[in-house]
TrEMBL record:
Domain of life: Bacteria
CDD domains assigned: HP_PGM_like
GO cellular component: cytoplasm
The protein's name in its UniProt record: Phosphoglycerate mutase
Classification lineage: Bacteria, Bacillati, Bacillota, Bacilli, Lactobacillales
MF terms (GO), sorted A to Z: phosphatase activity
Pfam families: His_Phos_1 (PF00300)
Residues given in the record as substrate binding sites: 9-16, 61
Amino acid sequence: MSQTIYLMRHGQTLFNSQHRIQGWSDSPLTEKGVNQAKIASQYFPENQIKLESAYCSTLERTEDTLLQITDLPYKRLKGLKEWNYGVFEAESDYLYPFNNDANFFPLFGGESDLDVQKRMSTTIKDIVTQDHSSNILIVSHGGAIRSFARAWRKYEANSNYLPYENCCVLKFIYENDVFSFQNMYNHDFSSLES
């Protein structure tokens, strides 16, 4: 039996709007972030997708996003948290290394890309093996989602990755112990620009 995972990034937060590195640090959704989540919630009914179960990380920004998407009961899981950026948490994002060296953040008390890939893959695999729903919503974080996608890249059906905007949705099919990336959807938030 195949299962479909809708892996979604949270809405804009205060730290996003201030261009600060968030990681395990948390900040609330902005008004724009709440509105992004409301717009993103339409993706599912517009595509005749009936969500059957829902999960989010233990960080407030994912839970607040999920609450705008569905009224399903949900579980908060630590394994879905954002990448731990160590001493760079809450600092200006101009300090973020552009080369994405997988071993950079452990030098400063954070996680490596491999750490995040393993944590996300283990957590999401636990979800699908314990929850036999056909359509599962998981609200997580940009860095953690990127790491998960990298872990399963060799199985992807589509390599058309767009920028990981707030409230983007990545669709994965889980079958035969493999997560296969299908497509990604970024929403049109032009009505929110002012």
